[in-house]
Amino acid sequence: MLQFHRISKIFVLGIILLSVQSSFALGFGLEAGFRQQSGDAGTFTTSSQNGLQLGVSSVFQFSERLAIKSGMFYVERPLNYTDTTLATDVKTKLTYFDVPLYLMFMFEEYAGVYIGPSVSILLNQKAETNSGATVNLNDKKSMLVPITLGAHFKFSPDYGLNLFFETISADVSNPLKNYRAVGANFILAFD
């Protein structure tokens, strides 16, 4: 319950801050979508999983072609791995609060490509075996810095898409590392 209150306070604060900043932004919107998460787990076999991503974003244009894309997001980074020696499947689900800071090159008023880092703060972790036993992930990093490359465009004044590729080269926890994700968010814009 304490975790939910912390997440809700961060999310409400983020919406208030982005609402105040939206008067200076080229675009402000709600984003929700899915990501296909993959990664490595040492010598274990891994399988990619789908995760959820949702939040708010803004685009701040500071020249004719350059802008900053930022926001606040709830991000799930799930990954399954199999310990073949013990014949055990482990399902992990790490959730984060992400604040991106991307440099965006604008092709048109409604389209651009971007690249940059995010600050990802660990909110919660869950790991369990196929038998339901809880697994402790060792050496969890409470903060990560993923690098993202993506494209953001609107297909109407109120709707758009954000397509992205994300990589985290640092260890996420023991044995999870080298996370990669591709995803798509639907954008509901408020200009």
Tell me the Rg in angstroms.
Answer: 18 Å
The global form is elongated
Main pleated-sheet profile = 8 strands, antiparallel, barrel
The strands making up the biggest β-sheet line up spatially as 1-2-3-4-5-7-8-9
User: Which strand-content bin applies to the residues?
Assistant: over 45%
Q: Write down the CATH class.
A: Mainly Beta
**CATH topology type:** Porin
- CATH structural architecture: Beta Barrel
The counted number of beta strands is 9
N- and C-termini, Cα separation: 35 Å
> Which spans of ≥5 residues are poorly predicted at pLDDT below 50?
20-25
- In total, the number of domains comes to 1
Q: Please state the average pLDDT score.
A: 86
Helix share bin: 10-25%
The helix-and-strand class reads: mainly beta
Describe this protein with a few key phrases.
191 residues; single chain; 1 helix
Task: Show the helix and strand layout.
Elements lengths: L1 H20 L5 E14 L4 E17 L4 E18 L4 E21 L2 E19 L13 E2 L2 E8 L4 E13 L5 E13 L2
